[in-house]
Amino acid sequence: MIMKDFMSLLTDGQLDSILKMLYGDSTLEIMKQKIRLTDVCEHFSKASPCCDDISVISVPAYTEIMGIPVFLSADKIIISGNDNKAVYVSDNIPKGFKPAKFKETEDIADCFSGYSICFSGVKKHTSRKRVPDTDYDTLCSLIEENEKRCVELCREALKIGDTAQFFRCFSDSKKHMNCNYKIQAGFIKSQLFIKYDGAVSADDNIITAFVPSYRTDEYVAEMDSIFGDGNCIAMKIRNKGESELTK
Fold first, then answer.
1. Residue 77 phi/psi, 5° resolution?
2. 3, 64, 113, 177 - which has most CB atoms within 10 Å?
3. Reported pTM
4. Are 206 and 199 in contact (CB under 8 A)?
């Protein structure tokens, strides 16, 4: 696509539908992404003024939840000349997340409409065993079996679009016995904050929470008060993996 044609589509709102699919329905977020795309195009044009035929691709952050691949709203925007001689990348994928490498996944985003997914925690600490080895190993085995059962139930819930059932299984899925004191404090505070509208789970180095969108900023502030400013990362879930905006 010719650069000026892409910029016209972006300015006229003709790309708004795909932007909403990738980043959610927030008017402010769509505006931010339009500004970001405009900046990317300007940088590319300055670096490669003779390259006007372009492709613009969004490659999202990727994680797994309960063994289910999940694409997140943070992404890399890659703009390249169709002669493959010039490339410019704008990256807003947070540290600790990987860019996706495939285009499709299970259609799960509709189940989480109205929610943000938040990640917070601290560096992993090695916890001391507080019970005899045999009891500890038995307990770990029981927890592992419980997690496998919860994964199966979560998958079934998503297949039928039962968000409430997914939340119940997700909240029951992780062990907390080896969490350091900050993770334990953040987990308890998250439970009190979310109550029955969302879900929270924790392992020994991170808390993952589904939070209603209208309360996300408040939740992030609560977690940052425990772990430090900028620690809690809030993102939306999107249906698509790698997506081209210039098709």
1. -100, 120
2. 3
3. 0.79
4. no
Q: At what angle do helices 27-47 and 3-11 cross, to 10 degrees?
A: 160
**Angle ∠(72,78,82) on CA atoms, nearest 5:** 140
Retrieve residue 84's tokens: 């493959």
Tell me the CA distances in angstroms from 103 to 6, 132, 244, one per residue in order. Answer: 22, 47, 10
- Two tokens at 178? 């080896």
Secondary structure class of 169 (helix, strand, coil): helix
Q: From residue 96, how far is each of 57, 93, 113, 206 by CA, in Å?
A: 21, 9, 24, 11
Residues 200, 189: Cα–Cα separation, whole Å: 10
CB 1 within 8 A of CB 53: yes
Q: What is the C-alpha separation between 162 and 155, in angstroms, rounded?
A: 10
Q: Is the dihedral of CA 191, 183, 174, 160 positive or negative?
A: positive
The residue with tokens 């539908």 is 17
What's the pLDDT score for residue 156? 83
pLDDT, mean of residues 204-226: 91
pLDDT in tens, 43-70: 998 888 888 899 999 999 988 877 777 8
**CA 234, CA 20: separation in Å to the nearest integer?**
17
User: 16-23 and 27-47 helices cross at what angle (nearest 10)?
Assistant: 110
Q: DSSP strand E in the chain: where?
A: 54-65, 68-81, 87-91, 98-99, 115-120, 199-202, 207-212, 233-235, 237-238, 243-244
- CA atoms in the 13 A half-sphere facing the CB of 38: 11
Residue 127 CA to residue 154 CA, distance in Å, equals 28
Q: Which of 62, 88, 63, 58 is nearest to 76 (CA)?
A: 58
Amino acid at 8: S
